[in-house]
Amino acid sequence: MKKLWGGRFTKTAEEWVDEFGASIPFDQQLVEEDIEGSIAHVTMLGKCGILPNDDVEIIKTGLLALLEKAKQGQLEFSVAYEDIHLNIEKMLMDEIGHVGGKLHTGRSRNDQVATDMHLYLRKRVTEMMDLMKELQKVLVEKAEQHIETLIPGYTHLQRAQPVSFAHHLLAYFWMLERDYERFAESLKRINKSPLGAGALAGTTFPIDREYAAELLGFDGIYENSIDAVSDRDFIIEFLSNSSMLMMHLSRFCEELILWSSQEFRFVEMDDAFATGSSIMPQKKNPDMAELIRGKVGRVYGNLFGLLTVMKGTPLAYNKDMQEDKEGMFDTVKTVMGSLKIFAGMIETMKVNVAAMEAAAKQDFSNATELADYLAAKGVPFREAHEIVGKLVLTCIEKGIFLADLPLEVYQKASPLFESDIYEALNPYTAVDRRNSAGGTGFAEVRKAVANAKKRLSEKKRYE
Ligand code: ARG
């Protein structure tokens, strides 16, 4: 089959070589962006008097017909035409005849493919941000139901101090908020137009790049034509932001998996988000959480893949850069799927308040309260720490908790202890009193829920 660029060739490549070089099996996902980019380009060619209006109208009509077919999934792509750009150009010529060959005036596949990717990521990142916001909303709703639910707070995975379960959930809200901000910030760079950079050097035609950019809803154009066609930073940045987001989701998954175990029993995944074992009838596995934790691997892989592809490519375009696509598509699919599953998982999970509170009560996570109690009465904190440490040891030896020790024992350890220590030892009181800014005190958490809701209501969609 003759190539659209076949003029200087005397021989055609073998089919298996074509297959190796082709990107159409995957870049057909860019079909709508590719046609939209072409419509803007040809409109600009008309406006600048580079193509006669009659030709422009015929080409546009042809492209719109292809766009319609693309949306219905009716286009049939062929490896013989290598990639999405040449496939569409070929289809256009089949549709409207040789005038279709004028579309590529003042343009190269190099600025074309970059334009497609910018348009594609702008859409997908905006959709991903919607999903992030949705998950944040689910988190805030769950948090609001559990402001006064106690859970042990952990450090080193050892019970440390009791906290409000809402407070714990909201920690993830803020991680997602930073992710959201990072994606929003990246849109500044995604939404720049490389179109009109040509192969690398610009073009001799009197094009209007700003106008084409405006038609495509870009906020501006790349300043340098070489940079425009060889930049893949915006994709690397997308993969990096996605990696960070997935890392956050994975940490949460790890907790959900632990909490679902018989050792914790803090939560139970809804049947819709769990699976059974083919051999052990008693089992209910938090599969979806495990899978999301596992999927982080491919997203990191995609990031490192593209960083590695780019590290040795001289300016400007190199065919290596065709390798930017599959990792990007895969990341979009993985992150969007994970966010959706996550929201469903959190929304439907059963919280075992009794198990959480029992864990928060039956341990020594209230020991800091006692040390603070003495410190508040003037004992240097270090000494208070030592005194309470000894009391904890006494309890461990006796197999009891701090609240079980009689007052005499306390007063022997320090005469400053009075009967109100039992109130201080109550984990509910311990949490309630931690009202320093951003702390787990119930009043603070109530403020935090309101603040989080306000943040959500202020989010504006990037259009
Ligand atoms: N399929 C190519 C890619 O994905 C399009 C750009 C091709 N440009 C070229 N000069 N071969 O990168």
The helix content is 55-70%
Q: Strand arrangement, largest sheet?
A: 1-2
Uncertain stretches of 5 or more adjacent residues: none
> What small molecules are bound in this structure?
arginine
Q: Which strand-content bin applies to the residues?
A: under 5%
Number of helices: 19
Secondary-structure element sequence? HHHHHHEEHEHEHHEHHEHHHHHHH
Mean pLDDT: 95
Number of strands: 6
Radius of gyration from CA coordinates = 30 Å
Shape: elongated
In terms of structural class, how would the helical and strand content be classed?
mainly alpha
Distance between the termini: 42 Å
| Quaternary status | single chain
Q: Please outline the major beta sheet.
A: 2 strands, antiparallel
Structural summary, described in words:
This protein is mainly alpha-helical and 463 residues long. Helices cover 62% and strands 5% of the residues. The chain contains 19 helices and 6 strands. It has a two-stranded antiparallel sheet. A two-stranded parallel ribbon has the order 3-4. A hairpin with a 2-residue loop joins strand 1 and strand 2. Helix 6 (109-145) packs antiparallel against helix 7 (165-190) and helix 14 (367-376) packs antiparallel against helix 15 (381-398). The longest helix is centred in the first third of the chain and has 37 residues, at 109-145. The two termini are 42 Å apart. The mean pLDDT is 95. It binds arginine. Arginine binds at residues 23, 27, 83, 109-110, 113, 317, 319, 321-322.
